[in-house]
Amino acid sequence: MFNSRRLGELIVVSSKAFDPSRNVAHSAPFVRRSPADGTKYSVLHIPWTKTSHVEGADIILSNIDNITNAFMAIDHHLVANVAVPSNAPFFAYETTDGKWAAMTKPWFLARCNQVWRAANLLELTGHCFRIGGATELLLRGVPPDVVAVQGRWKSRAFLEYWHKIESILPLFVTSSFSDSRTAMINASMDSYARRYS
Questions:
Q1: String of b and e for 142-160 (b: at least 16 CB within 10 Å)?
Q2: Are the beta carbons of 54 and 48 closer than 8 angstroms?
Q3: Cα Rg, the chain, nearest whole Å
Q4: Which long-range contacts (C-beta less than 8 Å, at least 24 apart) are formed by 17-22?
Q5: What SS3 state is found at 164?
Q6: Degrees to nearest 5, angle at CA 59 with 165 and 158
Q7: For the whole model, what pTM was predicted?
Q8: Terminal CA-to-CA distance of the chain, rounded, Å?
Q9: Residue 175 predicted with pLDDT over 60
Q10: DSSP 3-state assignment of 101?
Q11: How many CB atoms neighbour CB 31 within 10 A?
Q12: Alpha-carbon distance values, 185 to 18, 156, 159, 170, 181 (Å)
C-alpha cells in the first residue's frame, strides 16, 4: 500500500498534463534498501507535494507479506515497463503496439471502480485512497504517530481522517485481533487524540 499518499502526487490527471517539476517521472530516484535487520524497503522521491511544494517528499514502501505489498508491485511495474522512456510519467506503461501510455487518474479510478462494481462494492473517489490507507494502517496496529508521519499530517488535521473510526474499528478489529490487541490499538489512538486535542 502507498501509506495513505495523495493519489494526485503519484499519477497525472491527463497524459498532456505531465510536468516533471510537479509529477514523478519514470527516472525518479527509486532506491531499494535492506538494513542489517533484514527489513526490505524502497524509497521513491516525488518532486512536489501539496504541503511541501517544490521540496518534494520521499515515499517509503515497506516490504510486507501481504497482497497489498507496494514494494513488490513497484518492482513488477518497473520490470514490466523497462522500455518506457525516462522522461515519461513514473506510472507509464508499455502498450500492446510497442508504445507507452501514461496511467492517468481518471483511467485508474475508472478501472478500480470497474473491479469494485463487479465485486458488488461501492465506487470510490481518489481521496478515499488516502483515508483508506490511513485506516488500513491503523487497523494493522501501526501507531497513530507513525501513520501521521507517513501521511505527512500536521497536528489535529490527521484526526479528521478518523471520522467514523469508532464504528469502523469494532467491525474489523474484533474479527482480526484478540481483545488485548484491540485494547492496545484503542489506547494508542486515544493517546494520540489527547496529545493533539
A1: bbbeebbebbbbeeeebbe
A2: yes
A3: 18
A4: 18/88, 18/89, 18/102, 20/47, 20/87, 21/47, 21/48, 21/54, 22/47, 22/48
A5: coil
A6: 25
A7: 0.74
A8: 28
A9: no
A10: strand
A11: 10
A12: 41, 18, 15, 11, 6
Give the residue carrying C-alpha cell 497536528. 155
Find cell 514523478 and name the residue: 24
Q: Which three cell numbers stand for residue 90?
A: 513514473
Listed in sequence order, the DSSP H helices in 50-104 are 70-80
Look-up of cell digits 497513530: 144
The CA distance from 90 to 140, in Å, is 28
Which tens digit of pLDDT belongs to each residue from 119-166?
999 888 888 887 778 777 777 777 778 888 888 776 666 666 665 566
Cα–Cα distance measured from residue 99 to residue 97, given in angstroms and rounded to the nearest whole number: 6
Q: How many CA atoms lie within 13 A of 144 on its CB side?
A: 23
Half-sphere exposure of 176 (CA within 13 A, CB side): 13
